[in-house]
Amino acid sequence: MKLNKDEIGRRYGRALFEFASEQAQQKAILDELVAIEQIYEQVPDLGNILTDARLSSLEKQSLLDLIQKNASSIMQHFLQLLFDYRRLDCLSAIKDFYQTLYDQADSIYDATVTSAIDLNTRQKNLLMQAIAQQFGAKKVRLEIQINPEIMGGLIIRVGDQIIDGSVASRLKKMSQALLNS
Q1: Which residues pair with 158 in a beta bridge?
Q2: Fewest CB atoms less than 10 Å from the CB: which of 12, 120, 175, 180?
Q3: How far apart are CA 176 and CA 174, in angstroms?
Q4: What is its main location (predicted)?
Q5: What gap in Å lies between CA 80 and CA 104, rounded to an integer?
Q6: How many whole angstroms separate alpha carbon 152 and alpha carbon 155?
Q7: Which 3 state secondary structure label does DSSP give 113?
Q8: Quick one: pLDDT at residue 1?
Q9: What is the C-alpha end-to-end distance of the chain, expressed in Å?
Q10: Closest CA to 98 of 8, 3, 4
Q11: Are 119 and 164 in contact, with CB atoms under 8 Å apart?
Q12: Same fold, 5-103 and 108-180
């Protein structure tokens, strides 16, 4: 059975995170993964080039050596492992899952807030504090989305939890209640 990139990302990301944790290098390895992902963004097909048949093994190894040049020994060994198992095309999925594990371990939460209007800095700070308190987070990364259709209030999404305090949602509930009575 062939694994998809997300499953590969979870397996390798977890293994790398556990090893980095044993070495007390979680943040340093995350920083290296982010830097390598930036290289992948500059050369969008790099992962495929390093895994498919376009280049010889020697040419691919030379490219990998350039990527590994300034990496820590942990990252050098990890990249070589990915190369040997032809998994370098999954680096983005690995980094994403590693980031998820890092955030969980460090109590960092991502929250998406939908508002009818833009929020000022004070409102954003109060919202981050409230979300941190509600979810027990040390830090909250906030993404604001503007959607005038919600009319007012907020819709807050943290992970798979949604708190819908929008005016549009309240009106819809009131309308349904009136129709059902």
Answers
A1: 111, 161
A2: 180
A3: 5
A4: membrane
A5: 27
A6: 10
A7: strand
A8: 66
A9: 54
A10: 8
A11: no
A12: no
Please return the burial class of 63, using the count of CB atoms within 10 Å of its CB with bins 0-12, 13-18 and 19+: middle
| Whole-number Å distance between alpha carbons of 144 and 158 | 12
Residue type, 49: I
Is residue 3 very low, low, confident or very high in pLDDT (cuts 50, 70, 90)? confident
- Contact in structure between 65 and 96 (CB atoms under 8 Å): no
Residue percentage of the chain with pLDDT more than 70: 99
Q: How many residues comprise the chain?
A: 181
What per-residue confidence (pLDDT) applies to 68?
Answer: 94
Q: 108-180, which class in CATH?
A: alpha beta
**CA-closest candidate to residue 33, choices 74, 85, 87:** 74
| DSSP state at residue 178 | H
In the numeric block, the tokens 């080039």 are attached to 49
Q: At what angle do helices 5-22 and 73-84 cross, to 10 degrees?
A: 150
Burial of 98 (0-12, 13-18, 19+ CB in 10 A): buried
Mean pLDDT of the chain: 93
Could you give the CA distance from residue 128 to residue 106 in angstroms, rounded to a whole number? 16
CATH of domain 5-103: 1.10.520
Which of 170, 120, 110 is CA-nearest to residue 140? 110
Domain residue ranges of the chain, discontinuous segments joined by +:
5-103, 108-180
Given a contact cutoff of 8 angstroms between Cβ atoms, the answer to whether 135 and 109 are in contact is yes
